Amino acid sequence: MRRVGITFLAALAAIGTVGVLANPVPDDSSDVVATTTSSHGKDVNPTPFVIPSLQEWQGAKGTWQLTKQTRIVVDPKYAKGGSCDAPNTFMANPSTLTDFAKTLQKDLHEVTGHELQVAVSSKPSKGDIFLTLGANAQDKALNHEGYLLDINKKGVQIQAVTSRGAFWGTRTLLQMVILAEGDGLAQGRARDFPNYNERKFMQDIARKPFPQSDLREYSVVTSFFKYNTLHHHYNDNPGMRVKNLMPNWNTYYSGFRLKSDNPEFAKYANADMAYTKKDMREFQDFIKAHGQDLIPEIDTPAHSLCFTKFHPEWSIQNDTARGDWLDLGNPEVWTFVEKLWGEFVGWFDSREISIGADEYDETKGDLARKFVNHFHDYFRDNFNRTVRMWGSDVKLPGTIEIKTDITTDHWDWTYSNPVDLVKRGHKVSNLNAPDVYLVPRSQSYWDYLDSKKLYELWEPWVFDILDKTNSSRNLKPNEPLLTGGGFANWNDFLGESVTRVEVFDRVSKAAGAVAEKLWSGAQNTQRVSYDDWAPKAKKLLENIPGLTLQRRPKSKGQFVISYDFEDGVKDASGNQYHGELKNGAKIVEIGEGHGKAVQLSSDAYIETPLESIRYPYAIGLWVKPTGDQQPNAVLLESGDGRLLISNATSPTVTFEQDGHQYATQIILPKDKWSHIAFSADGTKTSVFFNMRRQTWVQYWNPRWDQLRNETMVVTGPIGTIGSAKGNSVNGVVDGFFVLNRASYGGEMAFLGKHYANALP
Ligand SMILES: *[C@@H]1O[C@H](CO)[C@@H](O)[C@H](O)[C@H]1NC(C)=O
Ligand SMILES: *[C@@H]1O[C@H](CO)[C@@H](O)[C@H](O)[C@H]1NC(C)=O
Ligand SMILES: *[C@@H]1O[C@H](CO)[C@@H](O)[C@H](O)[C@H]1NC(C)=O
Ligand SMILES: *[C@@H]1O[C@H](CO)[C@@H](O)[C@H](O)[C@H]1NC(C)=O
Ligand SMILES: *[C@@H]1O[C@H](CO)[C@@H](O)[C@H](O)[C@H]1NC(C)=O
C-alpha cells in the first residue's frame, strides 16, 4: 500500500485543525516556571512548587544538583524503625526508613535514569540525600507525619519524628526533581506537616473487579500526593432502584473480593476477581512502603447480596424491600457477621475497621444502632480494633446512641449531620458526596471531580460548599473531632460503563486538588492560583514513577503509529514504534489498490511495541477476512481488551473489555476489503465502517434494565494486530494507524483513502 508521505501528514494536519477546533485536544505544553514568591527576601529561592504545597519555606540562594554519584543514605540509628515510629491514630507499623529509602531509589531511577545507591551510614558525603529521624517530637506539627527538608550545597537532609514523616519528605523531593527536569533544586529549608491526620482515598472494588496491580498503582498515585489511607469496600451489588431488584433479586451480580481457603467462606468470593490472604499481605506490604495503611470494609447489614444469595432465609424481602438486606431480627445473622469478620479481620494490619452499616432499613433504626454498637464492642474485646461506619444515623431513627468512638464517614446530609455528630462527641471524616464522590458515568454524582472547585473552595471542614460561613453546615477548621477526609470512587454500574483505565484516569486527575486541601486546608498562604497550579499538576501527574495505567504513549505528532506495510512493519509516524511479524505473519503483495498487506491467520499476528491508548484517540485499519473465522477471532488485542471480528453468538464486530462485551452492529463481509475505525473522546467511542460513522459503542445500564444510548469510552487495544493467543483473524490487514486524538467523519474518509488507492 502507498507509503505515507510528508505531504499526506501535512494535509492531515491541516484537516486535523478543523477537528481540533471542534474538539480541543489537551495542550501538552506546560509552564513550569515557579511563580510563587517568598516572604523571606528578594534574592532567595521562592517556595518550590509541590502538591500539596509546603506549609513553610525558608529560601536560600543557589541550587543543588542530583547526580549519578548521589547516594540515599539512611541513618543507622533509625534504619530499622524503632521507638520513634509512633503509630498515628489507627495506623499500624509504618515501614522502616530503609524501606522508604528503597522506594525513593526506585522512583528516582525511573525519573532520572540514575541508579542511586542506598547506604546505611551516619556520615553522608557531599551530594548525598540523608534520611534520618530524631526531629523534635514535642513539635506537635512534626509529630506524627511532618518533616524537615534541608537542601543546601552539601546535599539534602530529610529529618522527621516518624519514618512515615520522612517518607512524605521524599515525595516532596521527588516532585521537585520531576519539575526541575534535570536542573538543580532550589536550596532552602522546608518545615512541612499535615493539618489533618486522615487523608484518604476510598475505593469500591466490589462492583468492579480490579487486579491487584491496579490497586498498587492507586497507592502509588495517592501516596505521591501524601495520602496516608486507602479504604477498600469489598462487597456490594448493583447501584439500582430497589424495585428493580425484585423479584429476581438473587440473579444479579454481586461482589465479594476476599477469598478465604476456608470452604465456609470461600463460596462468597467472586470468580472474576478476589484476593487471597497472601494477596492482601503483599498488598499491605507494598502500600506500607508508600506510607499508607488500609482500612478494610465489609459492608453489612445492607449491600449484602453476596451473602443473602447463599442465605435467602436471612434476607428481608417483600414488595418494597430488597433481598440484599440481612434481617437483623434473626439472631443467626449476628452470629454470621461475627464469624465473617472473625475469618477476615486477621488479614489486615489496620487498627481500624469499617463495618459499613449504610443505607439499611429505616424501619429498624434501633435494631441497626444496636448492631453497630455490638460490633464496636466485638472488635474492641476480641481484636483490639476500633470501628468506623458510613453516616447513617439520621436515617436510622431510634433512641439508642451510637457509641462515640465510632468514626463516621460522612457522605450525605440526609444520612448524617456532621455538625450534630461532633456536638454529640463523634469523630467525623469528610467524604461529602456532592464534592468528593466520583462515580463514573453516573448522572447523579461527579464523573470527573471538579478540581478547580475543590482547589478553590473545598476544605476538609467544609460540608456545605455553597454556605461555608454557616456554622450549622460546617465544622471549624481545627475541630479536633474532624479526622480529615478524602475522596471516594464508587463503581455503581458494575464496570460495564467504564474501563479500568478510564477509572484510573478519573481518580488520578482528582487526587492532586483534594490532596492540596487535605494536607493544609486553606491555612496555607503560599498557595498559587488554580491557573498556575493546574499545568504543573498535570506535569507531575504525567511523570509519577511506577505508573502504567495512564496508557498515553509518547508521540511526536498526532500519529502515534502508522503502518502501510510497504517496507515491513515500519512505523511512519516518526515515533519508531515499528512492529514485528510473529508466528508466520507475512507481507503479501495483494494488488487491489493495496500494494503490500499482511496475511494473518490463527497463530500469526503483528506485535507493536505499545499496549493500549486511553482517549482521545482514533484507530483504524483495512481488513479483508478470508476463509473461516474461529469464534472470537481477534482484530486487535492488549492486556486491556480485545476487538473481535465477531463473538460466539453474534456476527458483529465486538469490543471486549474488563470481562464485558459491547456490540457494534458492524458485520465485516467475507473476502472483501472493509475499513474499520474507532474514535474515542471523553464521552463516547464512535465506530466507523468504510469511513462513515455507523454507531457508538454502548452499554447495558442495569439502572434502566435495558440497553440505552449510554455511550462507552473503550480503551484502544493496540498491543497486537491479531492475537498472540492463537486466535487471530483469518485474513489480510493493511493501513493500520493510531492517532492521539479523536477523529470525525470527513477526516476519517480522508485517512482511510490515503492508506489505499482502491475504495469499496
Ligand atoms: C416490607 O419490608 C419493609 C422494610 O422492612 C417494611 O417497612 C414493610 O412494611 C414490609 N412490607 C410488607 C408488605 O410486609
Ligand atoms: C491495643 O492497641 C493499641 C494500639 O492501637 C495498643 O497501644 C495497645 O497496647 C493494645 N492493647 C492490647 C491489649 O493489645
Ligand atoms: C444556616 O443553615 C441552617 C440549616 O440549613 C439554616 O436553617 C440557616 O438559615 C442558615 N443560616 C444562615 C445565616 O443562612
Ligand atoms: C456477544 O456479544 C453480544 C453483544 O454484541 C452479547 O450480548 C453476547 O452475550 C456475546 N456473546 C457471548 C457468548 O459472550
Ligand atoms: C446517542 O448518543 C450520541 C452521543 O452522545 C448522540 O450524539 C446521539 O444523538 C444519540 N442517539 C440517539 C438516537 O439518541
UniProtKB/TrEMBL annotation:
UniProt keyword list: Glycosidase, Hydrolase, Signal
Active-site feature positions: E359 (proton donor)
Tagged with keyword Amino-acid biosynthesis: no
The Beta-hexosaminidase bacterial type N-terminal domain, residue ranges: 48-192
Domain Glycoside hydrolase family 20 catalytic: 198-521
Keyword Zinc included in the entry's annotation: no
InterPro entries: Beta_hexosaminidase_sua/sub, ConA-like_dom_sf, GH, GH20_Enzymes, Glyco_hydro_20_cat, Hex-like_dom2, HEX_bac_N
Signal sequence annotation: 1-22
Enzyme Commission no: 3.2.1.52
Pfam families registered for this protein in UniProt: Glyco_hydro_20, Glyco_hydro_20b, Laminin_G_3
PANTHER family in alphabetical order: BETA-N-ACETYLHEXOSAMINIDASE, PUTATIVE (AFU_ORTHOLOGUE AFUA_2G00640)-RELATED
Family recorded in the similarity comment: Belongs to the glycosyl hydrolase 20 family.
Protein name: beta-N-acetylhexosaminidase
